[in-house]
Amino acid sequence: MNRRRKIYEGKAKILYEGPEPSTLIQHFKDDATAFNAQKHEQIEGKGVLNNRISEYVFTRLAEIGIPTHFVRRLNMREQLVREVEIIPLEVVVRNVAAGSISKRLGLEEGTALPRSIIEFYYKNDKLGDPLVTEEHITAFNWANPQEIDEIMALVLRINDFLSGLFLGIGIRLVDFKVEFGRHFENDMMRIILADEISPDSCRLWDVETQNRLDKDRFRRDMGGLIEAYQEVARRLGILVENGHPKASGPVLVSSK
Predict the structure, then answer these.
(1) Does residue 11 sit within a domain?
(2) Amino acid 25: pLDDT
(3) Residue 41 maps to which CATH number?
(4) Is residue 198 part of a domain?
(5) Is 200:77 a contact under the CB 8 Å cutoff?
(6) For residue 92, what are the CA distances in angstroms to 112, 118, 140, 155?
(7) Are 161 and 232 contained in the same domain?
(8) What is the chain's mean pLDDT, rounded?
(9) Residue 256 resides in a domain
(10) Which of 69, 160, 177, 236 has its CA 20 to 30 A from that of 154?
(11) Are 52 and 106 in contact (CB under 8 A)?
(12) Average pLDDT score over residue span 192-221
């Protein structure tokens, strides 16, 4: 691993130069962070679970025509992905009030929103990833109006599909965060889904118990993060029922 050229290291992932032109290797770390890494721990097996859950979700999204950077899984912690020029925005889709929107607007957590709400946050850890408007995005040339329209259309399709996918396994998709990039191929450029979709980037609540199956367990010192991620993987059908994750890490089903 040390022989590979590191391109970028974030809080939860590392990007290395890929083996093929215009590709990267995305490595999932076990780091758990919150509040812009002010809270930071290592949780064994988290990276393995996020790699497999994100692989599953991106594969399903590709099946309905969502363009993504995902090419294939390489091993338990790594994926081969298309190289993109990341648009410096975190795009959040909210279906239910939770987290920062509850604090900003005085909404009780768990309140269903009148409709799905799309929010944009400027990707800048030093500034705390501030909430921004379309006016900011176009004024500072982070994306043009056509790209914003394309991103909004894609996230609504993603939201519709994932809401149904998770509801089918007894999970409520409260909200999620995604990122997009510009993928260049010859003289063509298109906007594609990048980064990851996992319990690190979604709020997932059990439909019956409202039990949280996402990173809020870490943010709020609830404990049981790895067990919650394992439960999501189990319901998605990618975790072996008789595995022994506490002893040897998650035992996951191989991709078909």
Answers:
(1) yes
(2) 98
(3) 3.30.200.20
(4) yes
(5) no
(6) 16, 6, 20, 9
(7) no
(8) 93
(9) no
(10) 236
(11) no
(12) 97
- Digit-coded pLDDT (tens) for 33-50: 887 767 889 999 999 999
Global pTM? 0.91
CA distances from 87 to 108, 179, 239, 249 (A): 32, 7, 33, 34
Does one domain contain both 188 and 95? Answer: yes
Same domain as 200, residue 95: yes
Instruction: Please report whether residue 213 resides in a domain.
Output: no
The closest alpha carbon to 226, from 47, 13, 57, 35, belongs to 47
- For 113: left if phi > 0, alpha if psi spans -120 to 50, otherwise beta; the answer is beta
Domain of residue 34: give its range.
Answer: 6-84+225-248
DSSP string, 42-64: E-TTHHHHHHHHHHHHHHHHHHT
Query: Considering only CA atoms, which of 219, 256, 220, 252 is closest in space to residue 238?
Result: 252
Distance CA 153, CA 134 (A): 15
Contact in structure between 148 and 140 (CB atoms under 8 Å): no
Amino acid 252: pLDDT = 61
Number of domains comprising the chain: 2
Q: Per residue in 87-113, pLDDT tens?
A: 999 999 999 999 999 999 999 999 999
pLDDT score of 242 more than 60: no
DSSP 7: E
Which of 11-14's residues contact partners 24+ apart within 8 Å by CB, and which partners?
Answer: 11/37, 12/47, 12/50, 12/196, 12/200, 13/196
Are 106 and 190 members of one domain? yes
